[in-house]
Amino acid sequence: MIPLVHDFTGERVLVFGGGPVGARKARRFAREADVVVVSPTFEGDSYGDSQRVRAAPDPADVSDWLDRFDPALAVAATDSTEVNEAIERAADQRGILSNRADRSGARDPGHVVVPATVRDDPVVAAVSTGANSPVLSRHLRQELESTISGAGGMAELTGSLREELDEFDSQTRRTALRAVVDSDAVWKALDTESANAHQVAIDVIADATGDSL
Ligand SMILES: C[C@@]1(CC(=O)O)c2cc3[nH]c(cc4nc(cc5[nH]c(cc(n2)[C@H]1CCC(=O)O)[C@@](C)(CC(=O)O)[C@@H]5CCC(=O)O)C(CC(=O)O)=C4CCC(=O)O)c(CCC(=O)O)c3CC(=O)O
Ligand SMILES: NC(=O)C1=CN([C@@H]2O[C@H](COP(=O)(O)OP(=O)(O)OC[C@H]3O[C@@H](n4cnc5c(N)ncnc54)[C@H](O)[C@@H]3O)[C@@H](O)[C@H]2O)C=CC1
User: Fold this and answer.
1) pTM as predicted
2) Domain extent for 124
3) 161 shares a domain with 141
4) Residue 98 in contact with residue 74, Cβ under 8 Å?
5) 3-state secondary structure of 159
6) What totals of helices (H) and strands (E) does the chain contain, helices first?
7) CA angle 188–139–184, rounded 5-degree value
8) Which ligand is nearest the CA of 134, by number?
9) DSSP, res 111
């Protein structure tokens, strides 16, 4: 299994099942996608900014629901193995990605797993155990939280420095950017509201390359 980062903006995700698992997946995808959750019951869980449709499709009806909503991804999170299987089958027939929440282990082609995710926008880190151990994904995600915290600011700073360093040759630019991400002073400045992290980075670049911006 190979991780990719997919932009779901403007795409539809159809989630079958409104229990805690369906709600969790709906919340996750509703950050970007147009999410529809189909379920006979909805609990107190939050479903994010998603549309809820009260229905309990039979396995034979699932195909019609995919035709009706035409999703890029179908999530099978019901407590019925037969319904989840039908969702997977119907998605395969249409070449739509599918996620089975009720299966671990090996996947067939075109089937995706939802990894544990840590964000500090625009940085995102995801952990998968190849669908073998969700509880380990969760544990590692918790460990990664402190590593990723603050990385969003560093991504924005180095993103804009890349543009400012446009005139430099590529080797010097690489040396400069590596020095910035390796610098404790820059990380500290990003974490200190009153500090000017950009200026600290410029000083680090001058030290590392002998060139000034
Ligand atoms: C294969 C996969 C399919 C998919 O959903 O894509 C899948 C399947 C199953 N999970 C089950 C159980 C649990 N899942 C969690 C938690 C998470 N599960 C997630 C993903 C995945 N779960 C995919 C693999 C990801 C990978 O590659 O590692 C996470 C990472 C993302 C998310 O779902 O948002 C999220 C953590 C998010 C976070 O904290 O950051 C916990 C932990 C807890 O609750 O404490 C438990 C209880 C402990 C246990 O059982 O391990 C069961 C049995 C159900 C039953 O017995 O009824 C199945 C089905 C089966 O095993 O057959
Ligand atoms: N991937 C994961 O992280 C986890 C997966 N699971 C698996 O995911 C499944 C769902 O977990 P929970 O949300 O905790 O279960 P749950 O039993 O609380 O919720 C199932 C939901 O599916 C709905 N439903 C039933 N028939 C339906 C149909 N025909 N069409 C649409 N919706 C239908 C029910 O009304 C209910 O809202 C479990 O059966 C379990 O196998 C469980 C825990 C974690």
Assistant:
1) 0.94
2) 115-147
3) no
4) yes
5) helix
6) 8, 7
7) 15
8) 1
9) B
